[in-house]
Write a structure and sequence with these properties.
Number of strands: 11
Largest sheet: 7 strands, mixed
Mean pLDDT: 96
Radius of gyration: 13 Å
Distance between the termini: 37 Å
Shape: globular
Length: 123
């Protein structure tokens, strides 16, 4: 599976963006899918994950209530709807896939990673 993230951009605080992660090569239905981010000078941060069926999700406290992760297994795509964006959401956002383990917020458990898409939120 190869992952391609897109949808990032420059927005103002309070705006919304929807990130997409398109998978090619294999269906993602067997993978837990996650979004992570990395701000300049900071480590990788968990944002959200969604289980294989899409029945369960989890979010970082910092984005809970503002971000929504979803998946369309038929179209092999995962989404991250980001509302009420804040300057502290500025980061490169990465999608990732985990085929083997239980759903997790630990980046080391994810086997496959996309290339990242930049999100910049101005105040």
């Amino acid at each position: 599976v190869q992952l391609q993230a897109s949808g990032g951009g420059l927005v103002q605080a309070g705006d919304s963006l929807r990130l997409s992660c398109a998978a090619t090569g294999r269906t993602i239905s067997g993978y837990t899918m996650g979004w992570f981010r990395q701000a300049p000078g900071k480590g990788q941060e968990f944002v959200a994950f969604i289980t294989r069926s899409g029945a369960s999700t989890d979010y970082a406290d910092s984005v809970k209530g503002r971000f929504t992760i979803s998946r369309d297994n038929a179209n092999n795509t995962v989404y991250l709807q980001m509302n009420s964006l804040r300057p502290e959401d500025t980061a490169v956002y990465y999608c990732a896939a985990d085929q083997w383990g239980a759903p997790t917020n630990r980046p080391r458990e994810y086997d496959l990673w996309g290339q990242g898409t930049q999100v910049t939120v101005s105040s």
